């Protein structure tokens, strides 16, 4: 990270696979929050999810393809390189100090934020920024709202038209041999086809 730059967005997730809504969220956050960069961080072993359809290395490579031509977007292998279950708080503890970090969420993630490991400490360490997701009401959990108010913090809302895309639906379509045009960055779609990913539903 450039020492002269101080405002960074962090977008974590399984990215199984990364799709256009992920990329648009990162770009919207970059612009609206006036960030110096947004880093997408694929989880190594997301503890709240079951089996993944692609390996950690494949998910990392798909992300790198997705952002390669987009200024301000980066990819970190931090969580993939770390052993054990992937906890966001451990990632934050590994980051350089002296920066302002914004953890970027979809409304669906905000809804269950208070189930995250050491969620109170996460909320203390970063600013939280959320975007709407189709079918999910943008509402701050009461426990999180109380904590933010006690800290004098606000929840940043990223203005972004809701995109009705999900990795679950994309995996289902790929397993069924259905069309996924307009859902994935072209380079990612080519990668999935080249390696025959998601031909069978994940367990």
List keywords for this structure.
203 residues
Describe this structure in words.
The chain has 9 helices and 6 strands. With 203 residues, the protein is an alpha/beta fold. It has one domain: 3-Layer(aba) Sandwich (Rossmann fold), CATH 3.40.50. Helix 2 links the parallel strand 2 and strand 3. Helix 2 runs antiparallel to helix 9. The longest helix has 13 residues. It is globular.
Gap from first CA to last CA:
38 Å
Largest sheet: 6 strands, parallel
Q: What portion of the residues fall into strands of 2 or more residues?
A: 5-15%
User: Quick one: overall form?
Assistant: globular
The CATH topology annotation reads as Rossmann fold
- Which oligomerization state do the chains in this entry correspond to? single chain
Poorly predicted runs = none
Mean pLDDT, to the nearest integer, reads 91
Give, in spatial order, the strands making up the sheet with the most strands.
Answer: 3-2-1-4-5-6
- What is the total number of structural domains? 1
